[in-house]
Amino acid sequence: MNRKELVPESSPQAAFGARLRSSREARGWTQDELAERMGYSSTHVSAVETGRKPPTLRFSRSADRTFGLEGTMDTFEREWREIRHGSLLEGFPEYVSHEGRAAEIRLYEVGIIPGLLQTPEYASVLAGSYVRRGAITPEQADERVSLIAERQATLVRTPPPLIFVVLDESCIRRPIGGHTVMGAQLARLIEFAELPNTVLHVAPFDMGERRPFDLPITLLTLPDRSLMSYAESAQRGHLERESTSVVPILTAYHQLQADAPSQAASVAMINDLRKGIS
């Protein structure tokens, strides 16, 4: 039987296939045996192993169940997300997987509206700016916009997460996409604040030194009540799970919420700005 040599370094998809083959061979399984365990045809397994067919989320999760990798840090699903979101910042796909099952989400953002609250038009303008700078392809821009829509599905799942958002005033004052796009985006923020599972504050410029964060920060409370923080540098995103590091950030977030204007006052500020640009 001919055996195609794999070159894992040639692409993330090839690396996925090579890992699938090595995991299978380490257990002494044939492609037929692995296919039966995973619920796929041997032809499908062969195509993924050799990089002729890209893996899917369903395929990756099936591989994790078959190889006993569910709940670990090195799953096939994680590798699939890195393939799919290759244009995204390193570390962000892993964060998204945790965000999708969080019981509570706390956001502080500077400069732009966070993805969970963006309208499709606002998200498209931002993605398009990356294309014009040559940072990503048009296809990758479409993927980014689609990912935002997928993430926003967490707002309506049952039960929905509690979502706390504090926006630096720059988020609502920075014009993105012209009056029509920005006006619709501000209207979306007002709608968001009316949801039963959300709290929205705007941290005004005159908070000055009372603002505890200079950069965006995200805090997740997972279903088991464990905490996780996420922050980004120019090179990558970083997830922090150590409570000794995360708890002080949570404390500072609560202080930020306490010092910021109430949700009613924040919504009034957004509404005044929206009327001014319409």
From TrEMBL:
Ranges of residues in domain HTH cro/C1-type:
20-76
Gene3D superfamilies according to UniProt: lambda repressor-like DNA-binding domains (1.10.260.40)
* PROSITE patterns xref list: HTH_CROC1
User: Species name for this entry?
Assistant: Streptomyces glebosus
Name the source's superkingdom: Bacteria
For region Disordered, the annotated ranges are: 1-27
SMART domains per UniProt: HTH_XRE
What Gene Ontology molecular function terms does this protein carry? DNA binding
Q: Which residues form the signal peptide?
A: none
Give any Pfam family that matches. Answer: HTH_31
Can you say what this protein is called?
Transcriptional regulator
